[in-house]
Amino acid sequence: GDRVGIWAPNGTQFYLSTLAAARAGMISVVINPAYQIPEIEYAIKKVGVKAIYIPERYLSQRYYEMLAQLAPELATSKPGELQSSKLPSLSAVIVDSESGGKLPGTVQYQDLFTLSSSEDQSKIESLQSQISPDSGVNIQFTSGTTGQPKAALMSHYGFVNNGIHIGFRNEFNLKDHRICVQTPFFHVFGMVIGIVAAMSYGTTLVLPGPGFKVAESLDAIDKEKCTVIYGTPT
Fold it and tell me: Which residue in 60, 68, 3 sits closest to 34, CA to CA?
């Protein structure tokens, strides 16, 4: 399937984009939101990302500006019709802009909910029977500590199987839980142990914020009565 990049911090947009891509038979490519220009260029080229979802900005990151530096053609392109000499695979940039206005050459994230026709939805439904358990569903990049990051492809079977067994091991099948997710969705911890395991058992995910902040996590744990906390030592 076509590769759909998600270059963003945690949020409902990340969650929905991942599931939507899987449902449509596409492969989500989850990308570290801290990546800089050389790293995002490498990631897009490495796996041939065709469309990418980004927020306009997060903290010091200016995602649209960085993509526009890599692909100056974006400024004069029609939405979904980018033709970039440096990023030849990329044709669509989907942005969740802070102002709600469209940035040049992009599709506004909120517009995705009204763009599809009944015919488009029927096509997606007809694709369901063509998606096998062994079809690719997600690509994650390794940390790249000893060289360029490697792109690891995961299957629908691997995703679901891991989610079910991890959820069972954590006894999500015995009672309703509310999980405070402090781990990033671009990592297997947040993606599989977080999203897929919770979805397999109807467990609630609580996102304190787009990134880890102690005060926000403590507040979410208290207000949402979380019974499980996801986090790492560092």
Answer: 60
**Across the chain, where does the E strand assignment appear?**
3-7, 27-31, 49-55, 92-96, 107-108, 136-141, 151-155, 178-181, 204-206, 228-230
Q: Are 234 and 206 in contact, with CB atoms under 8 Å apart?
A: no
Q: Give me the phi and psi of 211, to 5 degrees please.
A: -140, 170
Q: Is 138 helix (H, G, I), strand (E, B) or coil?
A: strand
Is the pTM above the cut of 0.90? yes
Question: Between helices 63-70 and 37-47, what is the axis angle to 10°?
Answer: 70
| Cross-strand bridge partners of residue 94 | 53, 107
Averaged confidence pLDDT in the chain: 93
| Pairing of the two strands 136-141 and 27-31 | parallel
Q: Are 108 and 129 in contact (CB under 8 A)?
A: no
| Run of H or E residues at 155 | strand 151-155
> Sign (positive/negative) of CA torsion 189, 190, 193, 196?
negative
pLDDT for 147 beyond 90 = no
Q: Closest Cα to residue 166, out of 185, 192, 137, 133?
A: 192
Q: How many CB atoms lie within 10 A of CB 211?
A: 14
Q: What angle do CA 111, 10, 234 make, to 5 degrees?
A: 165
Query: What are the tens digits of pLDDT across the range 166-191?
Result: 999 999 999 999 999 999 999 999 99
Which pairing describes strands 107-108 and 204-206: parallel, antiparallel, or unpaired?
unpaired
Are 189 and 224 contacting, i.e. CB atoms less than 8 angstroms apart?
A: no
Q: Tell me if 58 sits within 8 A of 98, measured CB to CB.
A: no
Alpha-carbon distance of 157 to 146, in angstroms, equals 29
Are 110 and 129 in contact, with CB atoms under 8 Å apart? no
